[in-house]
Amino acid sequence: MPKGERIATIAVPTILAAYNWPQQSDRYGRVARFVDHLFGRLDRLQSAGFDAKWKEVNLRAKVPGLERFRPAQEWLDRPQAATAGPSQ
Predict the structure, then answer these.
(1) At a CB cut-off of 8 Å and minimum separation 6, what does 84 contact?
(2) What residues contact 43, with CB distance under 8 A and at least 6 apart?
(3) What tens digit of pLDDT does each residue of 6-33 get?
(4) Phi and psi at residue 6, in whole multiples of 5°?
(5) Domains of the chain: total
(6) In the predicted model, what is the mean pLDDT of the chain?
(7) Which residues contact 19 (CB under 8 A, 6 or more apart)?
(8) First to last CA, the chain
(9) pTM, rounded to two decimals
(10) Do the beta carbons of residue 42 and residue 54 sit within 8 Å?
(11) What is the mean pLDDT of residues 35-57?
(12) Count of beta carbons in the 10 Å neighbourhood of residue 12
């Protein structure tokens, strides 16, 4: 590419999506435990020593047309979640 020439690019956000397992199923419970572990430890991933991209994670971001996994929303609604990550 010649110096000074530009190429148009796009950027897309990344989301973590999960299958909508029945609430009483083992897999639903596993995804719920994963959410609890990930959300509860995100501050560690956002600290020094981990990839800087972790600091861009916004657990409260909304994706039009998608419903948040119920245990994820419940985790975000807890009082201790008020200080977890950006609140956009």
Answers:
(1) 39, 42, 43, 59, 76
(2) 84, 85
(3) 888 777 788 899 999 999 999 999 999 9
(4) -115, 150
(5) 1
(6) 89
(7) 27
(8) 38
(9) 0.74
(10) yes
(11) 95
(12) 5
Distance between CA atoms of 13 and 26, rounded to whole angstroms? 30
14: containing domain: 1-88
Tell me the C-alpha distance between 59 and 87, whole Å. 8
Other Cβ atoms within 10 Å of 26 Cβ, number = 9
Residue 71 · residue 26 · CB < 8 Å = no
Other beta carbons within 10 angstroms of residue 60's beta carbon come to: 13
User: What residue has token string 């985790």?
Assistant: 75
Scanning the structure block, which residue is given the tokens 């998608």?
66
| Strands (DSSP E) found in the chain | none
Distance of alpha carbon 43 from the chain centroid: 12
- The C-alpha atoms of residue 50 and residue 26 are separated, in whole angstroms, by 31
Q: What is the predicted pLDDT for the residue at 45?
A: 96
